[in-house]
Amino acid sequence: MNKDLTVGKPYTVVWKFCLPLFGSIIFQQLYNLADSFVAGKFIGNDALAAVGNSYEITLIFIAFAFGCNIGCSVITSQLFGAKRFGDMKTAVYTTLISGGVLCAMLMLIGLLFCGSLLKLINTPDNIFADSKLYLLIYILGLPFVFYYNIASGIFSALGDSKTPFFFLACSSVANIAADILFVAGFKMGVSGVAWATFICQGVSCLLAVFFVFKRFDKIETDRKPAAFSFELLKRIAAVAVPSILQQSFISVGNIILQSVINGFGSGVIAGYSASVKLNNLVITSFTTFGNGISNYTAQNLGARKFERIKEGFKAGVKLTWIICIPIIALYLTASRYLMYVFLDSPTGEAMDTGIMFLRIVTPFYFIAAAKLVSDGVLRGAGQMKAFMAGTFTDLVLRVAFAAVLSTTALGSTGIWCSWPVGWVTGGMISVIFSFKYMNRVKYDGII
Fold first, then answer.
1. Which pick of 55, 233, 328, 443 has the fewest CB atoms within 10 Å?
2. What is the pLDDT of residues 37-51, one digit of tens each?
3. Which residues, other chains included, contact 144 with Cβ-Cβ below 8 Å and sequence gap of 6+?
4. Comparing C-alpha atoms, which of 197, 184, 247, 219 is closest to residue 76?
């Protein structure tokens, strides 16, 4: 059901719209959690390390899919808020076409240079073959990743956050079952983990695209929408390209970090692979929550209801902080038990690494949440330079401090200390810029 985010109490609207988004990303992250769980439990720590090692490269591809998602979603939200339904449909068709071309190019690059990318991050020999196999199968399923992300962005732009939630909930549960069946039942090893994800992502993608077109059939326009528009492509690209660059540089930064981590051996790699999944579950959830704030901001900007934007920001921060409290308590008090989900051995280097990572980064989730909600306002308003400033500062500091501290007596622990440094500094920048924009638009009515 389409939802107009420009009417109703901002707190109620944001909470009702964003909570299903939060639930959706929880289930989406279950794909990777399930892969790591099955790899670690049914195959071994080397398999867990291989899946985690490949994951950092898959984030580059996800960055492009996410860029298409947010570019389409923001512009579609603005047009939906302005009641320009014909242009809104054209914006969607334009994204589907251009996104398909981009996906094909990335698949070609990925298939040709898969091995080179793994060598670039110093993948250990004992996990190289499994890492390459997992990555190749993932690349084959890239169209599903792209078109699901675009479809999910369209639903969000229309104010519907529940439909993607139902798709992901069903496909994630199915993915867990398929992982266990292919690995424990059919003894397919790491390839079983990858093929299970491929199949379940494919089903959820096809269903999402099908229902997007059904939804569009019910939206009446005064003329037949054009199938493609270079003007709208420019507007979409103005949001999508900075988002892609932001996510790509984050992925490149993560690859550099992975390269540093790989120098400490498979035990540290396995521990980091397990704990970073738990961390990404939180951060990606708040990122998606920020995407919801982007849709809320964009719709209200399109409807010229500027005063509602700051209220939406306050509601977003309050809700994410409420969610932070039980997560932080859980991660700090039960980190060892959470690591049991992925690792067979209750002791050893992998376990110690994972626990240390969680205990260092978890207390700073409040700051990360505020940053990501601020990013959502900036992105929804098209303030992409300000949006990128906070993100790049976070990334540069994190990579630089990790590279330096890892060579000190802290060893691998020094790498984990770089996360809070980046979050605090980048968060301050994002919050300051978002407040400057919200105050300016409130008094000047600037779009």
1. 443
2. 777 667 777 777 777
3. 198, 201, 202, 204, 205, 206
4. 219
